[in-house]
Design brief:
The strands form 6 sheets. Strands 3-2-1-6-7-8 form a 6-stranded mixed beta sheet, sandwiched between helices. A 6-stranded mixed beta sheet has the order 9-14-13-10-12-11. It has a 3-stranded antiparallel beta sheet with strand order 15-19-18, with no helix packed on it. The N and C termini lie far apart (58 Å). The relative contact order is 0.10. It is globular, with a radius of gyration of 23 Å. The protein folds into 3 domains: 151 residues, 3-Layer(aba) Sandwich (Rossmann fold); 146 residues, Leucine Aminopeptidase, subunit E, domain 1; 59 residues, no CATH class. Strand 6, helix 4 and strand 7 form a beta-alpha-beta unit. The protein is of the alpha/beta class. The protein has 9 helices and 21 strands.
Length: 381
């Protein structure tokens, strides 16, 4: 008997491009799948494809329709939004009554536990979560969200990345104003918000340095960034490629760990597929994102060795959280007042011009130890 291969079809609820859907399945079956498929009748030796569907609109429905059209098994996993007693349920009130916010995530895990692989089409947070769960459970991941650059990530590749010990940690910060080579890609963190002229917002930190150094890059990235994708790239010149790494939904927000996790997984797959290239990234979410290294470091461990993550110089990464100051303190001037995030809590801080702060550049400073500044305690997690 042929061996069944259960494939999750995942993507956005608004994904209805049947041509792209068919091309993705063809790429999977002919080029990416780890087994040889036969026709649904199973006359020849090989594997028989079975579809696993969350039964939502969009990509899920296209997968279910395909299974029914060609006569192959369909495994249905609709989300139980009304199960308010499910473990970890978060209940909110909707237009049709109370529902469990986490039902979709629970459904994704149940599908992953029943499948061999997942085929990803363009989508949003639900699709990114499906990809994350699939990798956690060592499924084959076939990423067709960008048809021009489809990616295959198999459990062996994931284990190889883990055995690699994670990315290289560099105790310095990237300087985007200096040129880099064709074998390197520099990435900066940001958000996808666009201005009325189509340019993305790049008004602070490294993003501001990039925008000021390379005029027009905000317009180019405005065209390159796609919904549901955590990475985007533009060519600054024939030998320099620049990457955008999403950490926020909006420039006003704090950085979000789920976005960092999703963007990191995309970067891990890309780096594994291009071992000859070195990818450079400042630790995401720190500083303007108001997260600490202890928050993001576990997520970044999935990155392979050809990714370099840059953190503040001269400090053991696990010991610090960063503070963002509107204006760097003058050597002998009054201390600026700023709201800071430490261990997930905000305090108005009056920071002394000297005590306990290490300059990181671009108006960003770091508290290394518990200090007293103008009578106000500055706690460090």
């Amino acid at each position: 008997m042929p061996t069944p291969y259960k494939l999750i079809i995942a993507g956005g609820r608004d994904f209805n491009d049947r041509t792209m859907f068919d091309e993705g399945l063809q790429w999977f079956a002919q080029d990416a799948a780890p087994v040889k498929f036969v026709d649904p009748s199973g006359v020849d030796d090989g594997a028989v494809l079975e579809i696993v569907s969350g039964m939502a609109k969009g990509a899920d429905s296209l997968g279910a329709e395909y299974a029914q059209e060609v006569g192959i098994p369909l495994h249905k996993f609709p989300a139980n939004w009304k199960d308010l007693e499910a473990p970890g349920a978060v209940v909110r009130q909707g237009p049709y009554g109370p529902y469990n916010v986490n039902a979709g995530f629970d459904r994704n895990r149940r599908m992953a536990e029943a499948a061999n692989g997942v085929l990803l089409y363009p989508g949003g947070k639900g699709t990114a979560h499906m990809a994350q769960i699939a990798q956690e459970l060592s499924l084959d991941v076939f990423d067709y969200r960008d048809p021009a650059k489809p990616v295959v990530l198999r459990p062996s590749a994931q284990q190889s990345a883990a055995a690699n010990g994670g990315p290289e940690i560099v105790q310095s910060l990237l300087d985007y104003s200096k040129p880099w080579g064709a074998d390197d890609v520099y990435l900066f963190t940001g958000n996808p918000v666009r201005k009325t002229n189509g340019a993305i917002v790049m008004g602070r930190g490294a993003a501001l340095q990039v925008r000021d150094t390379y005029p027009g890059v905000d317009q180019a990235l405005g065209k390159a960034i796609e919904p549901g994708r955590g990475l985007a790239f533009v060519d600054l010149n024939p030998s320099q490629k620049l990457g955008w790494f999403q950490v926020k939904d909006h420039w006003r927000d704090d950085a979000k760990l789920d976005l960092i996790a999703s963007s990191s997984k995309e970067l891990a797959a890309l780096a594994q597929a291009n071992p000859q290239t070195t990818y450079h990234l400042n630790a995401p979410g720190i500083g303007n994102g108001r997260l600490g290294w202890n928050d993001v470091e576990p997520i970044l461990q999935e990155l392979p060795g050809n990714v370099k993550v840059y953190v503040a110089p001269g400090v053991t990464p696990k010991q610090f959280k960063q503070l963002e100051l509107v204006t760097p303190p003058a050597a002998d001037g009054p201390a600026p007042v700023e709201e800071s995030v430490m261990a997930g809590k905000r305090w108005p801080l009056v920071l002394a011009a000297a005590g306990g702060l290490t300059a990181l550049g671009a108006g960003v400073y770091m508290a290394q130890n518990d200090k007293k500044a103008t009578g106000v305690s500055v706690p460090v997690a």
